[in-house]
Amino acid sequence: MNLHEQLGALEMGVDQLIQAVVATQAENTPETSADAAASPAAAEHAEHDAAAEQPAITGANPETNAEPAAQQLQPTLEINRPARDEITMTIGNQTVALRPDQISRLIEELSNARASMTPEQPQGIPPGWQFVSTKNPMMAVQKQSNGDRLLVMRHTGHGWVPFTFSPDIVIQMYMMLTNA
């Protein structure tokens, strides 16, 4: 399967997830007041069913002191690993299976998006953080025109991860690695 086919398959999987979210939100859309007036018993039953399906809201919006309506309609995301080389993602009642190549693409896209979000990642290692380390990773180094060094290392889970270091940090890193 070439890169274009892989991207097409990933896009199809993402489209399926989006359709599942839209379908779930449409199913959870409350009745209009005209529908409720037509059948009070049906409206009471529908409200009971809708309340049972909604996730519990643990707090109110501090700005308006009201529960955010958008959060009430959000479907849940479930991630499972049915096989060694497969992960399934379920949003609402729609499940999509992702293969390793699709997972790599998803990790890359999520990583790129997360890098621009706030709040930033913690400055220190969070207590209890679990990770998979890569022993003796493949790496490539490139000198930049401003004297910085680009170091790209291959992590078994994250793929190729790039880092740029100023000359001062390269010296600090060398000292840390040789003194450890």
UniProtKB/TrEMBL annotation:
In this chain, composition skew of type Low complexity spans 29-43
Annotated region described as Disordered, given as residue ranges: 26-53
Please indicate which superkingdom the organism of origin belongs to.
Bacteria
Name of protein: Phage tail protein
Species in which this protein is naturally found: Paraburkholderia podalyriae
